[in-house]
Amino acid sequence: MFKRYTIRNKIIISFISILVLALSICGFYSINLYYNTLKSDTYSNLNLTINNVENVMTSNFASLNNTASTFLTNKYINNWIKNKYDFSSLYYENHSDLIKLENEIASNLMFNDLWSEKYIDTAYICTDDKCIKLVSRLKADNLKMELVHSDVYKQTKDLNLGSYYILNHEKCYFIKKIGNINYTKKLTLIIMLNQDNFSNILKKLPKYYSTYIQNENGKILFSNDESLIGRNIFFKEKSFSENNFLKNSYEKLIDGKPYLIVYRQLKNPNFYITVSIPKDILKKDLTNSIISYLFFVTTFIIIITAIAYSIASKYTSFIPVIVNNLNQIRKGNYDTRIPSYKDMDLNMISTSFNQMTEEFKEMIDKVYKNEILLKETELKLLQSQMNPHFLINTLTTISTKALLSSDTEIYEMVNALSNLLGVSLYNNKNTFIKIKDELEYINQYLFIQHIRFQDKLTYSIYVENDELLECYVPKLSVEPIVENAVIHGLEDTITDGIISISINLDSNENIIFKIEDNGKGFNVKEQLHAKTKKGHNIGINNTNKRLKLIYGENYGIKFISEKDKGTIAFIKIPKITYLDYKEENINDKSNDC
Predict the structure, then answer these.
(1) I need a surface site. Which of 201, 226, 293, 509 has the fewest CB within 10 A?
(2) Where in the numbering of this chain does the HAMP domain appear (predicted)?
(3) Whether pLDDT at 159 is above 80
């Protein structure tokens, strides 16, 4: 499809494609950078918010603890601590003392910020399952409120001495438990907190912030979302790992929506402040940025496309002129000419074209247009190929005549050569043969070389176990290495050559062929990767690649060679005794002989 476009359009399309790709990469990088910066800034804002909330709430909780101490420092409670007073008498008979106690408490609260700012609704002291009102700003029935505080007292009756915050019927209470002088009795101060006023501190934050204060068990005591008071969320999620933006921060799905969350643990009391923000707010800002960027990119591409089209039109206007003049030449009009151009390259094309048409015209004028004789002479090269069957049959005939002539040496040489040629020429489907058959080919080859070199060549073959002879090996995978040993062990040397071949099993049940010669040695890297004039290296290289292809990279040929001292070649293959003649299944066979 792209081939059908004109050069002008191809230039424009290519230019715009590169531009769009570059802008896309830059845009993706910029947007990703902007998003991470936005996310980091959001976490910083959350952290700043949580710092402010922490300061305010810590101050309020400290004031609450001081207020509780104010309640517990009057003379009646001091006498109770010294076992000099029984609060049950206030409940049943000493109503005048009760009034004095309430007046004393009211006097102490006149300059108390928590009371004046309505952070405290009620305060009761409870002992022996009876609760006595100290102060209350609620208009509810006294008996009803007494029952409410009695219920809270029962809930906290078994707690140890100290300070506690609890939830009872979605109301938050501050509990202070003290003991008498000999710790035989407990007195419980119960302060009902005005959760609305505490939550109003959190409601001053932006509306899209969700802020929670939880106790050590994870229950929400105060929140800018009243529907969540008493619930347990965002608390010690073990599955969350802290992100790289800020300590004590993570992300979590809430009702299917992702939130960014920052939490902080207070020291006194042991509360957690949690601030979260929907991640969609970040995505909204990011979406607006993407839309602005896309608008800019679209406008920019339109402008650049117009400029590119104008430039491409200017620098490709010569193409229709050239095409038109070529058509004129095709029609036989050799007087056509291309005008000159100011651009050096275009003017060079114009000059060359005009010179070409002038030369065409001169050539045609010198040659007879209507009398051109073409004589074709075909030379056929006849290649004669000798039939492999004919070659084998001829060698068989020669060996038979040698046998009839009682020339045993010639008979054995020709017979060995015939067997070797038979292995190469008749490549049947059996890619793998038994080791004993491979050794037979090697014996045939070494026999011929022994007759060739006479006593200059000595060789030996050792097999560790006769059972190894029944194992399988790729056909002609060992013979090229033996041939290489003969070449480097005897040719171009004046000393006698010794070749020893051994077949053993290693500790991993792999078959190891060891071919050793005392020749002149060679460079191992060149032997495996270079091509010599005789071409022996190609056979070794191909054999090595073939073994690795069949068995894997852990198998193949390894050379140890030292100049003028000889060479040792190791061939490593797995022990295979059963074969279905399918090369691709060779790795699935048993390794047990």
Answers:
(1) 509
(2) 322-365
(3) yes
Secondary structure E strands in 452-589: 457-463, 472-474, 497-505, 510-517, 556-562, 566-574
Average pLDDT over residues 278-292: 79
The whole-angstrom separation of Cα 113 and Cα 119 is: 8
Check: pTM over 0.70? Answer yes or no.
no
Say what the pLDDT of residue 121 is: 92
Residue 210, φ and ψ in degrees, nearest 5: -110, 120
* 191 within 8 A of 168, measured Cβ to Cβ: no
Segments in 157-214 forming alpha helices (H): 195-203
Reference 308, options 17, 22, 16; nearest CA is 16
User: What's the length of the chain?
Assistant: 593
Q: Given a cut of 50, is residue 140 above it in pLDDT?
A: yes
Closest CA to 52 of 281, 273, 279, 277: 273
Q: Give the integer Cα–Cα distance in Å for 403 and 394.
A: 14
Percent of the chain with pLDDT over 90: 12
Which pairs with CB-CB distance under 8 Å and at least 24 residues apart come from 161-169? 161/186, 163/65, 163/68, 163/269, 165/215, 165/221, 165/269, 165/271, 166/215, 167/215, 167/219, 167/221, 167/229, 167/230
CA–chain centroid gap for 68, Å, is 58
Furthest CA-CA distance within the chain: 153
What pLDDT sits at residue 201? 84
Please state which of the ranges 223-227, 247-251, 301-305, 366-370 shows the lowest mean pLDDT: 366-370
Whether the per-residue pLDDT at 456 is higher than 50: the answer is yes
Distance CA 192, CA 165 (A): 10
Residue 473's DSSP bridge partners are 433
Q: Are 42 and 277 in contact (CB under 8 A)?
A: yes
What does the pLDDT read at residue 235? 53
Give the C-alpha separation, 580 to 590, whole Å: 12
The rounded distance, in Å, linking the Cα atoms of 411 and 403 is 6
The predicted pLDDT at position 569 comes to 94
Amino acid letter for position 205: L
